[in-house]
Amino acid sequence: MMEKIIDCRGMVCPLPVVNAKKAAEELAAGDRLTVLVDNEVAVQNLQRFSSHKGYVSTGEKKGDKEYAVVMTITGEGAAPQPEEVDCHRDTRQKGMLVVLSGNTMGTGDPKLGAALMKAFVFALTKQDQLPETVLCYNTGAYLSCEGSEVLEDLKLLESEGVTVLTCGTCLDFYGIRDKLAVGGVTNMYEIVERMESAGHIVKP
Question: For the chain, give me the number of helices (H) and strands (E)?
Answer without folding.
Answer: 6, 9
